[in-house]
Write a structure and sequence with these properties.
This protein has helices at about 5-15, 45-60, 75-85, 100-110, 130-140, 145-150, 160-165, 190-200, 220-225, 295-310, 310-330, 360-370, 395-410; strands at about 30, 95, 120-125, 150, 175-180, 205-210, 225-230, 245-250, 340, 355, 370-375, 375, 380-385. The protein is α/β, with parallel strands linked by helices.
Amino acid sequence: MVFSLEYARKLDSQDSLASYREEFYLKEERIYLDGNSLGLLSKRAEKALLELLDSWKTYGIDGWTEGVHPWFYLAEKLGKELAPIVGAGQEEVIATGSTTANLHQLVATFYKPEGSKTKILADELNFPSDIYALQSQLRIKGLDPDEHLVRVASKDGHMLDEKDIIAAMTDEIALIVLPSVLYRSGQILDMKLLTEEAHKRGILIGFDLCHSIGSIPHRLSEWGIDFAFWCNYKHLNGGPGATGGLFVNRRHFGELPGLAGWFSSRKDKQFDMEHVLSAAEDAAAYQMGTPNIFSMAPLAGSLSMFTEIGMERIREKSLKLTGYMLSLIDKELEGRGFAVRNPRDENKRGGHIYLEHEEAARICKALKADGIIPDFRAPKGIRLAPVALYNTFEEVWKTVQILKSIMDEEKYKKFENKRGIVA
């Protein structure tokens, strides 16, 4: 029977990625479903971090060019491993900065208001940090964000309609920045369509991949996307504060970075110490300061799993996990006040399930008390992310049963309906 524990275990027995669960540090009696906020530590990531620490201990300053992972070339090495994950050429990707720092860099480079073409197009459902950065970049240009930042509205408060986004691509728009996957509802935007429509109108377009990289396949180069940026600590399991990444389409190579720094240089010129920048001729030009080596280190181990498996297989299992969870939620949680707010269409659904409930904050606390790690999003959102590399179908089944018992036994009433400091 589809809704039985036996069926869940049968699905696990057929899972070709099951062995990768052993790669991660998992706690007994705990089901971790927050990998879309912070992925778990893998043994490979730990090993790579220890190798980088050892290179400092062993080589001192010579670690820049010696050891298993020479520091001077580490950003480029990781960029080459990230490239197939986002469907890009190796020279188009670099591991650098953070999500917001990279957004600032890319907007500073590609936002060039001129004449009546002065506005940036975004959306009202995007993660706040992106909006703050865009508002900041407008202020730097002496422009009023209230007038020059256009945010496409959502009809239902959960999803966006690509037709509305396209309609907002007016002659006043100079740049577009959108999420690939909405952080709440998990909706996947049609990046290919939106890029085509932007380019028809002579507008550059970039995407925030934070909630899609490592969860869904991308074809950034093929789709002609101008730029993209992301964090590496969610589905890619790079660790808290892991160095981020960015993509710049090769047709923009040679464009001087808006925010230049020492590591924007060509490698062969960097130590010439000249006061005129000889910028790298690829995505490496969009680096700024010295790389945060130990924040990059875990990626050197984590990314090897993605290289082995490939994004198509990861996506296949992810869809099976979220699809199974949705079917259980429909069956077991009916009439208990939950509303499913993520797309049911597989082509539109990212790597997590998004539920809303008036008692969401206290339900999340009750889940944690029962060994389930969810993610709360104010005011009433519950995100559950079964990750292909380390979650099982049995865990999905157990999660829904525990959620059902929390509601039926009113366990959530033991807790205050208020978020913690870190939701």
